[in-house]
């Protein structure tokens, strides 16, 4: 495993194939991006989980007390994402469209996180894909694959990577399967603001 934080920094990267597909630029997030990152996360949560689990569920995960992963109360908007950006061993990659609007992001960190201990048995240190979201408007453009590749490009392709995904999010599961991830075990009940649904791990490598 490479030392934490030793990978190349992500500068602006653009993609243009002659106008046939949208142009996106990818770069590593800075502290100035924290509020925009959180706003983008909340937008993606509405678009992703609203149709699957309902608006009330989305309101729950977006207004819960701080402390659990990906929960952002209005009074502390951006706190979790500022922490991700500030942590040297964590990579946060933002994608913007040709107009400069944020349309996707990915976060990778050294796992397992504190909240994971005791949930499953095989919790050796391993890279975790903490988040990967794109807005609905760019689904099918290949941006998700580019974000996945970029946020992990400081690691060996053979190095294990895992993630958590919600049961019922079939689109995400199919995407991760396409990129080599396989389920590790049966789903576990979510806790806290996420209670009422189930989640499970996927891993590759």
UniProtKB/TrEMBL annotation:
<keyword id="KW-0808">Transferase</keyword>
<feature type="region of interest" description="Disordered">
    <location>
        <begin position="1"/>
        <end position="23"/>
    </location>
</feature>
<dbReference type="Pfam" id="PF00583">
    <property type="entry name" value="Acetyltransf_1"/>
</dbReference>
<dbReference type="InterPro" id="IPR016181">
    <property type="entry name" value="Acyl_CoA_acyltransferase"/>
</dbReference>
<feature type="domain" description="N-acetyltransferase">
    <location>
        <begin position="24"/>
        <end position="205"/>
    </location>
</feature>
<dbReference type="InterPro" id="IPR000182">
    <property type="entry name" value="GNAT_dom"/>
</dbReference>
<protein>
    <submittedName>
        <fullName>GNAT family N-acetyltransferase</fullName>
    </submittedName>
</protein>
<dbReference type="GO" id="GO:0016747">
    <property type="term" value="F:acyltransferase activity, transferring groups other than amino-acyl groups"/>
</dbReference>
């Amino acid at each position: 495993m490479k030392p934490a934080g030793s990978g190349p920094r992500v500068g602006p990267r653009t993609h243009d194939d002659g106008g046939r597909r949208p142009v996106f630029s990818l770069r590593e997030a800075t502290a100035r991006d924290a509020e925009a990152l959180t706003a983008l996360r909340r937008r993606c949560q509405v678009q992703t989980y609203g149709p699957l689990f309902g608006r009330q569920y989305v309101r729950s995960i977006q207004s819960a007390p701080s402390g659990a992963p990906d929960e952002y109360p209005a009074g502390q908007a951006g706190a979790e994402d500022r922490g991700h950006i500030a942590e040297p061993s964590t990579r946060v990659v933002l994608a913007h469209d040709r107009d400069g609007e944020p349309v996707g992001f990915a976060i990778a960190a050294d796992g397992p996180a504190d909240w994971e201990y005791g949930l499953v048995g095989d919790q050796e240190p391993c890279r975790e894909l903490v988040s990967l979201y794109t807005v609905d408007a760019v689904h099918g453009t290949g941006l998700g694959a580019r974000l996945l590749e970029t946020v992990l490009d400081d690691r060996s392709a053979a190095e294990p990577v895992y993630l958590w995904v919600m049961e019922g999010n079939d689109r995400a599961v199919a995407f991760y399967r396409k990129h080599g991830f396989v389920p590790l075990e049966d789903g576990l009940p979510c806790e806290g603001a996420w209670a009422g649904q189930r989640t499970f791990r996927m891993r590759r490598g």
